[in-house]
Amino acid sequence: MPSGHALPLYALASWLLTELLGALMARSWIASGGVRAARQRPPRSDEMSLPILAGHAGLNLCGLICWVCFVLSGATALALLALAFMAPAIGLGISTVAIWTPYPVTPAEPEPDPAPSEPGVLSEGELERVLSDEALSEKLVDELLRANLAPSAATRPQWSLRPLIPLAHGVLAVATFLLAVLAAVAAI
Questions:
Q1: CB under 8 Å to 11, separation ≥6 — which residues?
Q2: How many angstroms separate the Cα of 164 from the Cα of each of 12, 31, 90, 154, 176?
Q3: What is the pLDDT along the chain (188 residues), one digit of tens a residue?
Q4: Are 66 and 82 in contact (CB under 8 A)?
Q5: String of DSSP letters for 74-141
Q6: Residue 27: Cβ within 10 Å count
Q7: Cβ count near 184 (within 10 Å)
Q8: What is the per-residue burial (b if ≥16 Cβ within 10 Å, else e) of 39-71?
Q9: What phi-psi label fits residue 123: left (phi over 0), alpha (psi between -120 and 50 degrees) or beta?
């Protein structure tokens, strides 16, 4: 590595973070039974293929090893070899995103309206009786306000940070590739 140039180290740090996020995603896929399902039958078009994932991870790992050797030795050929491994790995990574991204998202089924026979629903006769009694009508209004104004789990937005992991992996992969190209060009 040429003295005074930090680009190879920045690329290495970015590459390691990218690999870490990729390992987290692979671990999640394995833990959810992805490998078992991939070995039992051919994958459907919307499922991850084990050879694609293994190729993506394997090419990136080979590129990372070449990059570490470049950082340690300064041999430009190793930087170019790392880029040669990284380019097809990026292509396979893009295909994993295309497979793993759940489009189109199906809208949630609306909950059916409660039937009059359900508990907590008053019949017309019961409602007339409650509305004619002041104490019962106050209690009914209080219950309605409490039930309708209290935030429920169904009305609160459900935020999940899980989509940020593949997004960060992709952004870091692009940054890694750009830093590695710049570092390799600077080393020539």
A1: 67, 176, 179, 180, 182, 183
A2: 22, 19, 18, 23, 18
A3: 555 579 999 999 999 999 999 898 888 878 877 777 767 766 666 667 788 888 999 999 999 999 999 999 989 999 999 999 999 999 988 888 776 665 444 455 555 544 444 556 777 888 788 888 888 888 888 887 887 777 665 656 677 777 788 888 989 999 999 999 999 999 88
A4: yes
A5: --HHHHHHHHHHHHHHHHHHHHHHHHHS--SPPPPPPPPPPPTTSTT---HHHHHHHHHSHHHHHHHH
A6: 10
A7: 22
A8: eeeeeeeeebbeebbebbbebbebbbebbbbbb
A9: beta
Chain centroid to Cα 105, Å, comes to 15
For residue 18, the tally of other CB atoms under 10 A from its CB is 23
Residues in the chain: 188
Locate 145 and state its tokens.
């306000």
Q: Using alpha carbons, list the distances in angstroms from residue 155 to 6, 106, 149, 158.
A: 50, 18, 11, 9
